[in-house]
User: What shape does this take?
Amino acid sequence: MLDVRDLHAYYGKSHILHGVDMKVAEGEIVSLLGRNGAGRSTTIKAILGQVVLEGSVRFRGEEMAGLKTFQIARKGVGYVPENRDIFPTLTVRQNLVLGMKGTRERGRWKLDDMYRLFPVLKQRADAPAGVMSGGEQQMLTLCRTLMGDPDLVMIDEPTEGLAPRIVEQVAELFDEMKSRGVSILLVEQKLAIALRISQRLYVMGHGRIVFEGTPQELRTDDSVRKEWLEV
Amino acid sequence: MEFFVVQLLNSLSYGLLLFMLSSGLTLIFSMMGVLNFAHASFYMLGAYFAYQISRYVGFWPALAIAPLLVGALGAMTERFGLRTVHKYGHVAELLFTFGLFYLIEEVVHLVWGRAPVDYRIPQALDFAAFTIFSTSYPAYRVFMMGVSVAMLLGLFLLLTRTRIGTIIQASLTHPHMVEALGHDVPRIFMLVFGGGAALAGVAGVIGGNAFVTEPGMASAVGSIVFVVVVFGGMGSLAGAFVASLFFGAIQTYTVAMDYSLLDLAARLGMGIAADSPVRGLLSVSVAQTAPVLPYLLMVLMLIVRPTGLMGTRET
Ligand SMILES: Nc1ncnc2c1ncn2[C@@H]1O[C@H](COP(=O)(O)OP(=O)(O)OP(=O)(O)O)[C@@H](O)[C@H]1O
Ligand SMILES: [Mg+2]
Assistant: This one.
């Protein structure tokens, strides 16, 4: 479904990604791991057309490199950023509705699904999103992206700084997404979660893919874990 | 009392006019992070276009057509000018709007000359609406207030009650996120810039004939609007609203007040000797200070509160 080949990305003059190859199949959960600064967020932003890039990004066989971000999003690519960019002055409901690409609920997700999965979003529906807690804001960001009915969602460090109970809820949402046929490209710091929910994993270092394999393969590969993951 | 009430109405109508300019400028600033120096030029164009159009088809069609033309010009300015310049950073954008200001002024010189043009209020509105005590109040002033309030109410409802309004609100602070959700943010920028210009155009249409339509009007009004947005807090619509009404009042009342500190001293029974060195300073009337007062207040505000009345970000 997503096929990235020889992806290079730049911030001004600095060359950040040096030829990344990666694939996500239909309905698959794939994790992208690595230490801070490895280039994981940059990979996601490049796929989304938010940074200067070279190389090929194909989505359902169609070349997306060179398209504008909103065009890529309309093709069915969702994005949940690492800094929880909610719209703080808008209400929770307005945030969710802005996730929709048209004026009507379409596709897999309805507002009521979100309210059922996260009742707090319903309780706070008319409150400004800025007053919610960090965990609630993370839920809102995820749900807002889902309201756009993406077929692939790229999620950047969703569990960072969240309480264990909330982390569990996020993991449950991923299960729900998988059961509805949504593919996920996940950047995750917590190795345990990534190993548990992913079908395949990539490890990045210095802007390159240094490992590709299944959770089982990564578990048994001590050298990769030592060299590229543990601090 | 009579003076007070009449001036209150005048300052309200002037303040609302200022807000039609400062609200657009504020929205554009929040969006681009750059102050649009040419904003008042759209006000001037609104007045000149209305003057020209009303010579052929009368005031009422001009009231609708002139702002639409100005809005289209604004949208094109964003689409083909600022969007290209944006790559080179804020300074380049600032210089672009600066250049545009002079460009528009020169074009106005070329087309309409340097003297004021004879843009008058329409005959249908050239009567006294009512009489306060012994002063009759012009209907056109009432009409100005009506148009301003209607436009601003429309703007408010658009921003808070419609889908495009919430997209605009979100784009003001998080344009990248809004675009990642699949919204055409570049188009939103163009619409906001065009809408802001159109609003300034409306102000020009109704203000140009109430005051004077001449090539200096953009810089005169532009500097006051600049003071208003800095004083109110850059990027804050509420701040711009309060500051617009405040400076509308300041300007209206001060120019009409002929008192000086010397009069005050005399009333308090303090005689100041005719040859006293401070006598010259004390005899300056309030009206004479009117031109500098806004800038003085802006500087004071920046010293006390660098973010302005309700602003959140440093300029
Ligand atoms: N806006 C930017 N301008 C210049 N360099 C940047 C920018 N953003 C990131 N970088 C650099 O690019 C490299 C990769 O950053 P990236 O954000 O992709 O890392 P990451 O793997 O997501 O790690 P983390 O999120 O923990 O920082 C880093 O060296 C970082 O300093
Ligand atoms: Mg990152």
Notes: Residues A 11, 14, 16, 34, 36-42, 82 surround adenosine-5'-triphosphate (ligand 1) (CB under 6 Å). Strands of chain B lie at 128-132, 135-138. Residues 2-219 of chain B form one domain. Chain B has a mean pLDDT of 91.
